[in-house]
Amino acid sequence: MARLLIIGCGGVAQVAISKCCQNSDVFEEIMIASRTVSKCDAMKEKLEKTTKTVIKTAQIDADDVEALTKLIKEYAPDAVLNVALPYQDLTIMDACLAAGVDYIDTANYEPEDTDDPEWRAIYEKRCKDLGFSAYFDYSWQWAYQDKFKEAGLTALLGTGFDPGVTSVYTAYALKHYFDEIHYIDILDCNGGDHGYPFATNFNPEINLREVSANGSYWENGHWVETKPMEIKREYNFDGVGMKDMYLLHHEEIESLAKNIPNVKRIRFFMTFGQSYLTHMNCLQNVGMLNTTPIMFEGKEIVPIKFLKALLPDPASLGPRTKGKTNIGCIFRGIKDGKERNIYIYNICDHEESYKETGAQAVSYTTGVPAMIGTAMVAGGTWKGAGVFNVEEFDPDPYMEALNKYGLPWQVSENPVLVE
Ligand code: NDP
User: Ligand 1: does its nearest atom lie under 6 Å from the Cβ of 34?
Assistant: First the structure.
């Protein structure tokens, strides 16, 4: 039985909260704390009649370590689930250390202000040393390893779908299907249609920064960087059909390259329709994706934040989105001296996700594993002092929980490979 503090109350959080309430055997009590407390109160009101889990709410600015530490000490949870934004990862980790509780998140650290000279100097050195230029990377959070170890606390990083489930699929494939995995292709297909000419399925700022950045992949011990959308492939996805997909940089490549021995290449592909790409290119060309503030009619505005205010709220896409997602990994490697290829994937239906939780499949496929990873830590199944990525623990109980909590997976032998 555990008591959990959940920070954030957006699309992903709403699914994670609903799922915690379905798992009252582990989550006896939860507190939902976010910047806008009315969203937390609305969730409490919606769910409290349907669950044995006791729900409390609080207002918090998670950028304020002192206030957050105070809240954690007062509520005294067993763990904190961070489903706010990657900007808050480090402040929430600091508060967890100060209050002595375990930490869980779904996305690695990214600074809100990419013009901060102190951050920029470290970033530019990393670009040169490692060879990829994404704003986010694991170095900031891996640097907490000794602090969490000394405190005897667990920090579990990246328990969403990708990263998260894709990394657990990798650990599962290595445990049950391969002696060595040599090639990993992570394929993220969203076949959903929300009917808008342009909208993002999760936080627009985070989503557009990721998609408009250079791509990169890991090969033979180093990063290879590409221009945005430079590498395109087509794939016929089970449950969705034929889609164009593009190579992106993605955070689990970094941790899998570190944690999967003998891996030769790891790539990540995401599907995009032509309309999405045309809109994004246009917005980028006119400067609307910039994160540097500009003066507009005597007021300072950040272009991408202004764009966020114009775009549909991802949470509002739920009732309009039809179709399915298919996310998974194709593994190539050897077993008993012979070559072997397998594909592990999940198909998730937008309309069914919405019926169950009030959120579409992109939030659903992230919120369910956020709850599962938290249950692994808070329920004591995954134990360890230090900072961990999900592929470092036993995948079997997590894979079982995916089937139980709405993200069933399938294994296909000899799939069509990506060239
Ligand atoms: P949303 O923008 O929908 O929600 C973010 C929530 O965090 C909002 O409730 C927001 O409050 C709250 N918040 C923001 N800043 C603060 C702060 N300083 N203090 C307290 N609360 C704050 O985002 P999503 O739900 O789409 O995404 C949540 C996380 O999930 C992100 O980190 C995202 O990167 C990650 N993600 C991971 C995926 C994976 O597969 N691993 C896939 C998709 C998302 P307010 O309501 O006031 O704005």
Answer: yes
Per-residue exposure over 351-385, b if at least 16 CB sit within 10 Å of its own CB, e if not: bebbeebbbbbbbbbbbbbbbbbbbbbbbebbebe
> Is 75 in contact with 5 (CB distance < 8 Å)?
yes
| Rounded Cα–Cα distance for residues 210 and 190 (Å) | 16
Q: Which residue has the tokens 């540097």?
A: 292
Written as one string, the DSSP assignment of 129-156 is: HHS---S--SHHHHTTHHHHHHHT-EEE
State if residue 314 touches ligand 1 by the CB under 6 angstroms criterion. yes
Report the nearest atom of ligand 1 relative to the CA of 163: 41
The ligand 1 atom at the shortest distance from the C-alpha of residue 60 is 20
Instruction: Provide the whole-model pTM.
Output: 0.95
How far apart CA 411 and CA 289 sit, in angstroms, is 39
Measure Cα distances from 40 to 31, 47, 355, 359 in Å. 9, 11, 20, 15
At residue 203 the predicted structure's pLDDT band, cuts being 50, 70 and 90, is confident
Q: What is the pLDDT of residues 160-175, one digit of tens each?
A: 999 999 999 999 999 9
**What tens digit of pLDDT does each residue of 47-80 get?**
999 999 999 999 999 999 999 999 999 999 999 9
Cβ–Cβ under 8 Å, residues 215 and 227: yes
Ligand 1 center to 292 CA (angstroms): 21
Query: How far does residue 84's CA lie from ligand 1's centre (Å)?
Result: 4
In whole angstroms, give the CA distance from residue 362 to residue 343: 20
Residues 6+ apart with CB under 8 A from 216: 131, 132, 133, 134, 223, 224, 225, 226, 249, 253
Instruction: Specify the residue with its C-alpha closest to ligand 1, atom 31.
Output: 85
- Select from 47, 36, 30 the least CA-distant residue to 9: 36
Closest of 6, 9, 14 to residue 31, by C-alpha: 6
**Two tokens at 362?**
């992109």
Q: How far apart are CA 333 and CA 76, in angstroms?
A: 46
Q: What is the mean pLDDT of residues 283-302?
A: 93
CA of 156 to the centre of ligand 1 (A): 17
Strands, DSSP E only, in 273-385?
A: 294-296, 299-301, 324-335, 338-349
Provide the β-strand partners of residue 235.
Answer: 243
- The contacts of residue 201 (CB under 8 Å, 6+ apart) are 190, 192, 207, 314, 317, 360, 362, 363
Closest by CA to 17, choosing from 52, 43, 54, is 43
Ligand 1 binding pocket includes 203 (Cβ within 6 Å)? yes
Q: What is the rounded distance in angstroms from the CA atom of residue 11 to the CA atom of residue 418?
A: 32
